[in-house]
Each structure stands twice: as structure tokens, then as C-alpha cells.
Specification:
The protein is an alpha+beta fold. The protein has helices at 3-20, 45-53; strands spanning 29-37, 40-43, 60-72, 77-88, 95-105, 111-121. It contains two helices and six strands. Strand 5 (95-105) and strand 6 form a beta hairpin.
């Protein structure tokens, strides 16, 4: 397993799903998963998806600038750090963002998100 390839595939899947069907992200999280969104901590798959689907915009498009990853611990986890641009429908300028995912393997051979931290980057 090439960690960089796994990270790239995860990032592509996550942001494509976020931009087209945020509710579809539910299967990437579990009950113990935690999202910190702009400093607000949210735990559990249902609560995380409720937060993401209640954001005050319906349409957006993520443009990924960088994806960095590192193996994490003996259980086969991975840290994935993403930076990019977030374009909201009707807005002229894109917002810069950073997001970190801690992925853990599932018994089925895929990964789920244990930790997810999102921040907009203000100049």
C-alpha cells in the first residue's frame, strides 16, 4: 500500500462527495470520530454530517493545492494534511483552507476518519 496514493484517493473522494452530496460523507466517519470545525468540536458520524449539511451554503467547489501524508502508529493509520481553495457559489473570491484527517484502517480494508480538523486561512 502506497500511503501517498491512498491519501490522494481519499482526498479526491472526500471533496468530490462534499461538493456534490455532503450527506454521503457519513460512511467515512464512525461514532467515535471527531470533527473540529473552526474551533467547534463535534463527535459522531451523525452529528458531523448534520454540521456539514447545515453549513450556510448549498454549493461549493474545493480546489486542492497540496496533500501531505505520514504513516501514524502501528495500527496502520495515516495523517493527511490538505490545503486548498474553497469557492462558494455566487462569491467572486475563493477562500483558503487547511484540513487535517487522521485515517484508520477498517477490517474491510478501507479507511475511516477518526479525527478531522478544518480551518479557513485568513491573510
Amino acid at each position: 500500500m502506497d500511503p501517498d496514493a491512498v491519501a490522494k484517493a481519499f482526498v479526491e473522494h472526500y471533496y468530490t462527495t462534499f461538493d456534490s452530496n455532503r450527506g454521503g460523507l457519513a460512511n467515512l466517519y464512525q461514532d467515535g470520530s471527531m470533527l473540529t470545525f473552526e474551533g467547534q468540536k463535534i463527535q459522531g458520524s451523525q452529528n458531523i454530517v448534520a454540521k456539514l449539511t447545515s453549513l450556510p451554503f448549498q454549493q461549493c467547489q474545493h480546489g486542492i493545492t497540496t496533500v501531505d501524508c505520514q504513516p501514524s502508529g502501528p495500527a496502520g493509520g495515516m495523517l493527511v494534511f490538505v490545503s486548498g481553495n474553497l469557492k462558494l457559489a455566487g462569491e467572486q473570491h475563493a477562500l483558503k483552507f487547511s484540513q487535517m484527517f487522521h485515517l484508520m484502517p477498517t477490517p474491510q480494508g478501507s479507511f475511516y476518519v477518526v479525527n478531522d480538523i478544518f480551518r479557513l486561512n485568513y491573510a
